[in-house]
Amino acid sequence: MTDAVEHQLWSLFREFLERGERTRRWSVERDVDWSTVSSVGAGAPAGGASAPPSGTTTAMGAGVVSAEIVDIVESFFAVELFLPDYVSEALRLLRSSRGRAWMQAAWGYEECRHSLALETWLVRSCRRTERQLEEFADACLATPWTLPYDEPRKLLAYQMIQELSTAVSYRHLRDHADAAGDDALSSILRHILIDERAHYQFFRDAYRVMLADDRDGAISDLHFVLGTFEMPARRCIPGFEARGARMEQARVFDATIFVKEVTRVIYAHLDVPRRISLNTTPQEVSR
Ligand SMILES: [Fe+2]
Ligand SMILES: [Fe+2]
After folding, report:
1. In which residue ranges of the chain is pLDDT below 70?
2. CATH superfamily of 3-14+64-285
3. 171 Cα to the center of ligand 1, angstroms
4. How many angstroms does the Cα of residue 225 sit away from the middle of ligand 1?
5. What is the pLDDT of residue 44?
6. For residue 216, what are the CA distances in angstroms to 43, 76, 211, 220?
7. pTM for the structure as a whole
8. DSSP state letters, the chain
């Protein structure tokens, strides 16, 4: 990487950190009104229930989130659990780039709230017990997440795509929380998706630096990663196939959303032509 590229990445990181300190700091305890969480009562079965069992209470004004949506919240809790792997694996590859390595550290600090907030909601809504989540977390973390790409520019493309995909998913999930009337969950998801958008913006702006440095190479890497992209940790989470299917059924994330709300947005933001490459997936062909 040239000194000029590194200098620009460092400047982007400084801007990201300063803006984040001013506008996006939030606390799981202080900034979520936990009195609005919808609860099905202690002792709810694993897997949740679509309506509160008789004799249980629901917070005033709060609706009940369906079992399917609870399952999706739990799936995102699991995806966010792999934070130590996401940070350590990326730092191993990126430590020689000060801008990207420090970004990874700051990113990890922001991401740690996401899993914590979702875990806290699952427990306080009585949809899962602490014990259930501990056992689920142990099962997930039995398989470490490893880098999907071991070249820094491809990893940057992956981070950009992943952050926008996650932001889009949380926005759709928040729509379900809004419809159910669970203000606590809506609030958590709003905080998280604002963070995810900010992360996307950093990685997108960093990718613009890569395009300016080596346009053909950066476009080729972008096409390659778009054609091979998978949501993080899906191979590490037990039973993710069924969990992914529930996300698709709920229109939280699926191939069409990926095309319309991720791929096309990235092409437009980067002013890069859409192109079918050797690594194009069947879904990619229709983009
Ligand atoms: Fe996150
Ligand atoms: Fe993020």
Report:
1. 41-62, 275-287
2. Ribonucleotide Reductase, subunit A (1.10.620.20)
3. 12
4. 20
5. 43
6. 57, 35, 8, 6
7. 0.89
8. --HHHHHHHHHHHHHHHHHHHHH----TTTSS-GGG-----TTPPTT--SSPPTT----TT-----HHHHHHHHHHHHHHHTHHHHHHHHHHHHTT-HHHHHHHHHHHHHHHHHHHHHHHHHHHTTSS-HHHHHHHHHHHHTS----S--SHHHHHHHHHHHHHHHHHHHHHHHHHHHHHT-HHHHHHHHHHHHHHHHHHHHHHHHHHHHHHH-HHHHHHHHHHHHHH---TTTTTSTTHHHHHHHHHHTTSS-HHHIIIIIIHHHHHHHT------TT--HHHHT-
Contact at 8 Å (CB) between 38 and 49?
Answer: no
What pLDDT sits at residue 49? Answer: 38
What is the Å distance from ligand 2's center to 78 Cα? 14
56 Cα: distance to centroid of ligand 1 (angstroms): 32
pLDDT attached to residue 1: 76
Ligand 2: centre distance to CA 111 (Å): 6
CA 218 to ligand 1 centroid distance, Å:
25
- Give residue 90's pLDDT: 97
Rounded to the nearest angstrom, the distance between the alpha carbon of 182 and the centre of ligand 2 is 23
State the distance from the centre of ligand 2 to the C-alpha of 163, rounded, in angstroms.
5
Q: Which ligand is nearest to the CA of 80?
A: 1
Residue 140 CA, ligand 1 centroid: distance in Å = 17
Residue 3 C-alpha to ligand 1 middle, in angstroms?
30
Residues lying with their CB under 5 A of ligand 2, a single-atom ion:
163, 196, 199
